Amino acid sequence: MKKIVVLKGGNSPEREVSLVSGREIATQLRNLAYDVLELDPADYPDLSELVQYVKSSEVEVVFNGLHGGSGEDGQIQAVLSSSGIPFTGSGFVCCAITMDKYVTKLIVQNEGIPVPDGMILRDDLLCDYQSTTDLQGFEQRFGLPLVVKPNAAGSSVGIHIVNDLEGLKPAVLDAFNFGKTVLVERYITGRELTVTVLAGKALPVVEIKPKEGFYDYKNKYSKGNTIYEVPATLSAEETELIQLYAQRIWKACYCHAYARIDFRYDGEQFYFLEVNTLPGMTPLSLSPMAAKAANFGFGEFLTKIIEESLRKTK
């Protein structure tokens, strides 16, 4: 029986989602006859003590079910790697890059793939703006609505669709609660699509259709709030293009084993949004949906992730 650690929880704003992902992963791995040890980094004073305990447990691999924070920004990947402990997903180089949405956009844009026009705020630069007249430069440059989101967070925490300039400052202030930098971007009208890449190959495209509003935290994790279409209704040419984009982004960002790459489609162009190196594994998560459409059961999908991760080169 193979012994495996599942990391779940942690201290990021995405803790609750990670706890659900971790439980789902652990259940499936036990069904596959793994000897599973579930650990929460929040129970340890620092990562070094967590890794020391993992090393003493003599496990074969760590399945990283964390989301956000030190679990996804390259910190825990670097500590595990330096300790010689195999783990699932991408290495610390990829995670450090892709956790920064602004840096990732620059890389993707350099690949010739469309990205929404936007700017990064490294501090609350709007504190001196006293009226909507002061803020008109944002509308002139990017139009309305605007998307405001933390630059280094996932699970749609702290994200806002701003329909008027009066809502811009409150949205930015809220986004700063989830990180030190904030992105303000042009909102791309149209469809929300995502592509999971497994071992460098794109799985079927998933379309996300919230019944109300946009794909925020509530719609993402509340059953019945969102309709998912797998595979998405696209022409063969459109499907080929978005999957090609996803695979190119995967390579450009040094992804390994698996990742999920999100897009918006305005009917003419696919616009890259972000890379998720540790996509959710909850009952409503997108990557397991894509895997199922590719005829992989959840357990088989996890097995393939483990197998590919053990071929880690970075």
Could you please describe the fold and organization of this structure?
- It is a single chain.
- By secondary structure, the chain is of the alpha+beta class.
- The protein has 3 domains: 85 residues, Rossmann fold (3-Layer(aba) Sandwich); 140 residues, D-amino Acid Aminotransferase, Chain A, domain 1 (2-Layer Sandwich); 69 residues, 2-Layer Sandwich (Dna Ligase, domain 1), CATH 3.30.1490.
- It has 11 helices and 13 strands.
- The strands form 3 sheets. Strands 8, 9, 10, 11, 12 and 13 form a 6-stranded antiparallel beta sheet that branches. The chain has a 4-stranded antiparallel beta sheet with strand order 4-7-5-6, covered by helices on one side. Strands 2-1-3 form a 3-stranded parallel beta sheet, with helices on one face.
- A hairpin with a 4-residue loop joins β12 and β13.
- The longest helix is centred in the N-terminal third of the chain and has 17 residues.
- The chain is globular.
- The two termini are 27 Å apart.
- The model has no long low-confidence stretch (mean pLDDT 89).
